[in-house]
UniProtKB/TrEMBL annotation:
Protein name, entry field: ABC1 kinase family protein
InterPro entries from the UniProt entry: ABC1_dom, Kinase-like_dom_sf, UbiB_kinase
Native organism: Actinomadura sediminis
Family: Belongs to the protein kinase superfamily. ADCK protein kinase family.
GO MF annotation, one: kinase activity
Keywords in alphabetical order: Kinase, Membrane, Transferase, Transmembrane, Transmembrane helix
Top-level taxon of the source organism: Bacteria
Length: 651
């Protein structure tokens, strides 16, 4: 019994000492570390504590030299803490915090990691089977040089993405609109990707409705068609009728799709980072940024409440020619979207119907283009994916827009930049185009503005000069120009070009030969004439004056104070250094690091000098007081040096 109590007491004492060493080391370093890492460092310190104590007490009689024993205990504990601190600093240097998950996280998520690994291998094999091994490993000597090779590679990529599943199909659809990134052959092949899937059995759909709305479909709707109107990889659509008599469309997310998408998005991100490290072409295309933007957009698309808000935002500024369905917010949840039903046919299938009715295709195309351009330039909220499947020809002859999972937004400043760009291009002002363009993009530190202005001038002469016939190829050349001068197009502006490139396909299908660029230029001229009308100018001047009025009211009083102070010789200028809290923190941190470095150096020099002294009062058989103080100063020097190093490694 006594031995068991002794073992328990020893274990408890060892545990307490380990925790004291661990959290003492973390406190002296003045930085937070993961729990596992902290305790492991304390355990290492505890492991070396006994040998250190044994060596220190070798020449001491604890019963006769009580004071010296206590001081050596303190020194031994300090050495153990120093070892724990050294472990933490070295660990931080070689394996920075956050670079790999904690072992506690590994044990807690081993099942999901195994599932992800299997999926990762499956996706890798799909791409390897379609001949992308050299590109994934970064060993491809060159890209496809001929048109036939590019078409073959593009077809293989399309098939691989289609076999990869929902996230990869969506990725292919997004890439099919990035004419600034991919060659035309890839854009054409990826544009054939269809987001289709087998319908989900009614029992599972009914369970989603019960979970989200808290009632059975027959309790919420007057009628509900169990046969889906359409089924895609993320959701499927049913028609229904509310108890108020309104016909609606119910979009229901496929059960379990969120888990599948999040797992595949993690794989897409990992593949992008691997390619960024291994392949030069991936770094040139910025695949990591593309993958991150795609992941954010797809995660947002999985929350149908976001789509309902998008629909309401675009619908608030809708025109009379193109209708936007109205969402029923009280019935919209994260996985269910209930919206007004627009009776019509998708534009991709409406060709025979247009001919049968004898409708003017050019007029329909003009109405659609004007609506999207007005959303972009005037309203600032626009449909970012207007492909033919998302455009309806309604029974009354008008057009409708559906599927607002992807919506672009431009703030007032970006809209103003776009408007200035349109105005300068309409005037043929190269300098104005360059200035407006540079206001929209992120410029590198060293930019050849004169060269960029000349390149933009040549671009305008080629595509917008007299006798030219501008088409969508000008956007491809514009993005090449952006890449050549290492400019970074903001995601909001990229969404504008993507929407226009996507819209081109629908307009070409609706009205073959329709000149989207020429019509957009005509829209810009019309819009500018509207802005230059006397009423518009009067409104703009009135807004500016109202904004300046408070400043104008204060200006005379402030001028009077300044002139009075100047006459009396009391005019002073106050400059506040380090007014920003971030500047103060930076300077304070630098001063602390310098001071700690100086103190560590001083303590180290003193330790060497004390250890080198001969003689002095003896504290033990082989240790004098000077040597003991030297060891203490060495510990202090090491602690201060570790404080400096851990900050360097953590940054």
């Amino acid at each position: 019994m006594d031995s068991a109590v002794t073992v328990v007491a020893f274990a408890a004492g060892t545990l307490l000492n380990t925790l004291a060493l661990a959290f003492g080391a973390r406190r002296l370093l003045n930085m937070r570390f993961p729990l596992f890492r902290t305790v492991a460092a304390g355990a290492v310190g505890q492991a070396v504590a006994s040998p250190v104590a044994a060596s220190l007490f070798a020449g001491i009689d604890p019963q006769r030299q009580v004071t010296a024993t206590l001081w050596f205990v303190v020194l031994g504990f300090a050495c153990a803490v120093l070892v724990s601190m050294t472990v933490l600093v070295l660990w931080e240097a070689f394996v920075p915090t956050g670079s790999i998950p904690s072992p506690l996280y590994w044990f807690g998520s081993i099942r999901s990691r195994l599932s992800r690994t299997r999926r990762y291998r499956q996706i890798s094999f799909i791409f390897l089977r379609h001949g992308f091994g050299p590109y994934l490993r970064g060993r491809a000597k060159r890209g496809p040089s001929t048109e036939n090779e590019r078409v073959r590679l593009a077809r293989s990529l399309t098939e691989a993405l289609e076999q990869g599943g929902v996230a990869f199909v969506k990725l292919g659809q997004v890439l099919s609109t990035r004419r600034d990134v991919l060659p035309p052959e890839f854009v054409a092949e990826l544009g054939r990707l269809q987001d289709r899937a087998a319908p989900v059995p009614w029992e599972r759909i009914e369970q989603v409705i019960r979970d989200e709305l808290g009632a059975a479909p027959e309790d919420v709707f007057a009628e509900f068609d169990r046969t889906p109107l359409a089924a895609a990889s993320v959701a499927q659509v049913h028609t229904a009728r509310l108890r108020s008599g309104e016909d609606v469309v119910v979009k229901i997310q496929r059960p379990g799709i969120r888990t599948v998408v999040e797992r595949d998005l993690d794989i897409v991100g990992r593949l992008a980072r691997t390619l960024h490290q291994r392949a030069g072409w991936a770094r040139a295309f910025g695949v990591v940024d593309l993958a991150d933007g795609f992941a954010d957009a797809l995660k947002e698309e999985l929350d149908f409440r976001v789509e309902a808000r998008n629909m309401a935002s675009v619908g608030a500024a809708r025109g009379a020619d193109v209708l936007i369905p109205r969402p029923f917010d009280d019935l919209c949840t994260g996985r269910i979207l209930v919206m007004e039903r627009l009776a019509g046919t998708a534009l991709s299938k409406a060709g025979p119907l247009i001919d049968e009715r004898g409708m003017d295709r050019s007029k329909l195309a003009q109405a659609l283009l004007d609506t999207v351009l007005r959303q972009i330039v005037v309203d600032g909220t626009f449909h970012a994916d207007p492909h033919p499947g998302n455009i309806l020809l309604l029974d009354d002859g008008r057009l409708g827009l559906i599927d607002f999972g992807s919506v672009g937004r431009l703030d007032a400043e970006l809209r103003a930049c776009l408007q200035r760009l349109l105005l300068a291009m309409n005037r043929g002002d190269t300098v104005g185009v360059t200035d407006a363009f540079l206001e929209m993009v992120a410029r590198p530190d060293e930019l050849d503005e004169q060269g960029l202005a000349r390149a933009l001038g040549a671009f305008m002469a080629r595509h917008l000069g007299p006798g030219s016939a501008p088409d969508m190829t000008m956007f491809t050349e514009l993005f090449r120009l952006v890449a050549r001068y290492e400019l970074a197009v903001p995601p909001e502006i990229a969404a504008v070009f993507r929407a226009l490139a996507t819209l081109e396909g629908g307009l070409t299908e609706l009205a073959p030969g329709f000149g989207i660029v020429a019509e957009a230029q005509a829209f810009g001229e019309t819009y500018l004439r509207e802005r230059l009308r006397p009423s518009s100018l009067q409104e703009a001047v009135s807004d500016e004056v109202m904004g300046m009025l408070p400043m104008l009211r204060r200006l005379p009083r402030r001028l009077d104070r300044i002139t009075a102070a100047a006459e009396a010789g009391r005019l002073t200028l106050n400059v506040r250094l380090f007014g920003d809290e971030r500047d103060r923190r930076t300077v304070t941190g630098l001063l602390q690091q310098v001071l700690l470095t100086i103190l560590a150096s001083t303590a180290g020099i003193m330790a060497v000098m004390l250890l080198g002294l001969d003689g002095g009062p003896a504290m033990a058989r082989d240790v004098t007081l000077y040597q003991f103080l030297g060891y203490c100063m060495l510990v202090v020097c090491s602690i201060l040096a570790l404080r400096v190093l851990v900050v360097i490694f953590r940054r």
